[in-house]
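Help needed: design a sequence for this.
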């Protein structure tokens, strides 16, 4: 068995035939690629060398050396020619002296023959001859010159005493048809013993002299070349040491960005100055980079880490705890109503609140915990080495209590509340994004519970988030396919029962989910950006329907449409409404916009500008749910609003509580004092109706006067509602007759 298993292993490790056939090709290809890579690297290295400063310096010095050698060669050639002529003249002069002394002693021409023979034996004398007065050569060595005649120029030579030396024949004497030759000399001789004269001819062997001079010149040039090469090398080394090496060091320092090398500094020359300037610039850059890195991880206001820093530290902590049972808690805290502080007290006060919060969190931080400002008024904390959820909740509650303690800010006494969401690693998430997302979900749950709440992440929160995403997806489809509809709830005059208008309420009946409340899908629309097209559709549909009713001759009433805070901050809201009114041919007086009290307190100046433009357009504006917000009288006087709607919560308390009429009474009196009309919403009983009428409320809206109805049903209601006359039944509250008429019509239709 063992042998078989070993054989199987060998078989598995042995390459298949196809693999063996492909191996040589792959090997060759790999070798070829490696060779090509080496060749490319070699070419790059060679190319980089030839473009380097060192190569340029060596090339320049080599060129200078070559030029110097060439110039020296030219001078050597000139000296060679000059020395050749000088050496020839010297030898000719020596021969001439011998001829002259022999001529003075000679008794006849024949006595000159031994002299010629002796001279011919000299190594550098190639030939000698003696011519008579008639120019005919009578003695010569070699004998081939005998019988020759001198030309007129040679025959007319001056006496040596006049010239001081041998005279080169110019042109040389023609001997046996020969022409001009280098090294030929002629001199006139006087024979006093004979009483005649003649001409001596000498031919110096210039080849021997030239060979001697060539050897000398070659030696000179060789030593000159060696000297030049040594000079080039010496100068190159000197330049490299003094110039090139510092520049190359400076280049390396620059390429490294000032990292991994000592500070580039040199002598007090130009290179040293540049080196120090470069080093200083690198140091400044490094300092700037360090500051930027610090700024990129730090919140400038509080000095805490920012969101990026928080995520990095969270990633480090999760990596540290990977594989063990250590529990990490991710805590996200949000300050409640922080925007109110900025809007009412100013941004400086808001900054002071944030700094105070940062100081509290830092002071309560345990060793190893991380505190960061991750958003405008959001702070994140990483609690390491948590034993259980109770410990984390205790720490979170302690932080909330510390932040919620009253304190003074200038002349104002403030009490800042906060909400906290908590999630844990690893059971709630194993990566940074999941943990922060889950903490945000827990924070949203804490905000719903109220100020100062702390909420743990639960899986159902994730399911709710999935549900919201599903609603968002289906809402997009519903808007595109016009699956939404509008219901209309009437408003009546409290004194006369006359219908004064209606409020358009959006409704959505899902194919699978059934009826979905606006309280569910409107926040989703605001969060995902669908509120803008949704509001545009509501405005268009309400204006279209109202105009259609007017064309049918029905009573002209105003239709109120709710707008969100996002709509109010849009700069094009006025243009959108104006275009809608023009397209639907509806007068602005029949359109009313309802806004909540909290909306107008967000970006007050921007909202006021938008409201004034809408008011100038002719559109009515009312404040919905008045009394539940936090607007002040100062702001209320600035708003171009003419109608207030009392929140239904105050209407419900009127019959149930002894002092339930106080707040509605105050709101009604306040509104009348400011010249505003008051509408009470959520009126469901006759008792509530009568109380509001007695308090002076102007208009009524609620189930008592009419439920929200679809367009077709509201059209019937509008046709049969009282038109400006009090209700015929004195004891019956206004609006009841309209409801009875509508019920009768429904029964007859059935």
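Sure. Designed sequence:
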């Amino acid at each position: 068995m063992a042998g078989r298993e070993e054989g199987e292993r060998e078989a598995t490790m042995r390459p298949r035939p196809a693999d063996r056939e492909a191996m040589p090709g792959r090997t060759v290809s790999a070798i070829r690629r490696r060779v090509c890579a080496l060749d490319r690297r070699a070419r790059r290295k060679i190319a980089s060398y030839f473009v380097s400063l060192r190569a340029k310096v060596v090339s320049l010095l080599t060129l200078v050396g070559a030029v110097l050698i060439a110039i020296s060669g030219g001078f050597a050639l000139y000296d060679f020619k000059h020395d050749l002529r000088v050496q020839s003249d010297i030898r000719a002069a020596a021969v001439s002296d011998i001829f002259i002394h022999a001529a003075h002693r000679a008794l006849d021409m024949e006595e000159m023959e031994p002299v010629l023979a002796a001279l011919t034996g000299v190594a550098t004398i190639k030939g000698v001859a003696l011519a008579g007065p008639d120019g005919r050569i009578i003695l010569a060595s070699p004998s081939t010159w005998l019988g020759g005649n001198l030309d007129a120029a040679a025959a007319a030579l001056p006496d040596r005493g006049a010239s001081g030396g041998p005279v080169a024949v110019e042109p040389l004497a023609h001997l046996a048809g020969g022409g001009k030759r280098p090294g030929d000399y002629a001199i006139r001789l006087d024979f006093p013993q004979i009483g005649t004269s003649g001409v001596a001819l000498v031919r110096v062997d210039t080849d021997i002299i030239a060979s001697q001079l060539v050897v000398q010149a070659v030696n000179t040039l060789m030593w000159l070349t060696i000297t030049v090469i040594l000079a080039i090398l010496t100068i190159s080394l000197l330049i490299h040491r003094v110039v090139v090496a510092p520049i190359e060091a400076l280049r390396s320092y620059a390429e490294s960005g000032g990292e991994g090398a000592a500070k580039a500094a040199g002598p007090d020359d130009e290179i040293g100055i540049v080196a120090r300037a470069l080093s200083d610039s690198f140091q400044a850059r490094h300092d700037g980079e360090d500051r930027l890195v610090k700024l990129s991880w730090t919140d400038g206001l509080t000095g805490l880490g920012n969101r990026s820093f928080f995520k990095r530290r969270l990633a480090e902590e999760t990596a540290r705890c990977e594989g063990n049972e250590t529990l990490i808690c991710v805590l996200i805290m949000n300050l409640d109503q922080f925007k109110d502080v900025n809007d009412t007290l100013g941004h400086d006060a808001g900054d002071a609140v944030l700094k105070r919060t940062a100081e509290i969190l830092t002071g309560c931080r345990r060793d190893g915990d991380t505190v960061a400002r991750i958003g405008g008024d959001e702070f994140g904390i990483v609690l390491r080495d948590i034993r259980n959820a109770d410990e984390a909740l205790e720490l979170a509650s302690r932080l909330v209590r510390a932040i919620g303690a009253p304190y003074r800010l200038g002349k104002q006494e403030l009490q800042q509340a906060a909400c906290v969401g908590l999630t844990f690693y690893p059971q709630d998430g194993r990566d940074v994004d999941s943990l922060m997302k889950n903490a945000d979900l827990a924070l949203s749950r804490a905000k719903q519970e109220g100020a100062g709440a702390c909420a743990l992440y639960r899986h159902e929160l994730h399911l709710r988030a999935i549900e919201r995403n599903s609603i968002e997806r289906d809402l997009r489809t519903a808007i595109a396919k016009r699956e939404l509809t509008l219901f209309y709830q009437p408003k009546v005059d409290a004194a006369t029962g006359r219908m004064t208008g209606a409020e358009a309420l959006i409704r959505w009946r899902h194919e699978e989910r059934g009826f979905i409340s606006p309280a569910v899908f409107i926040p989703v629309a605001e969060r995902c950006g669908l509120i803008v097209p949704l509001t545009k559709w509501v405005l268009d549909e309400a204006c279209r329907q109202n105009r259609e009713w007017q064309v049918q001759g029905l009573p002209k009433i105003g239709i109120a449409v709710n707008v969100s805070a996002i709509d109010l901050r849009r700069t094009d809201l006025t243009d959108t409404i104006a275009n809608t009114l023009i397209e639907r041919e509806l007068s602005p007086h029949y359109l009313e916009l309802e806004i909540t009290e909290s909306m107008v307190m967000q970006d007050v100046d921007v909202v006021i500008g938008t409201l004034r433009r809408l008011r100038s357009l002719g559109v009515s504006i009312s404040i919905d749910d008045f009394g539940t917000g936090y607007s002040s009288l100062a702001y209320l006087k600035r708003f171009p609003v003419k109608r207030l709607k009392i929140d239904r919560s105050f209407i419900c308390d009127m019959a149930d509580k002894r002092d339930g009429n106080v707040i509605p009474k105050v709101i009604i009196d306040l509104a009348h004092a400011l010249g505003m009309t008051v509408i009470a919403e959520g009126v469901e009983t006759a008792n509530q109706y009568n109380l509001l009428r007695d308090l002076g409320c102007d208009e009524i809206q609620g189930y008592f006067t009419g439920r929200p109805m679809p367009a077709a049903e509201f059209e019937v209601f509008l046709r049969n509602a009282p038109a400006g006359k009090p209700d015929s039944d004195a004891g019956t509250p206004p609006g009841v007759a309209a409801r009875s008429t509508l019920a009768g019509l429904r029964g007859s239709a059935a």
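The chain has four domains: 2-47, 91-211, 298-457, 469-724+732-743.
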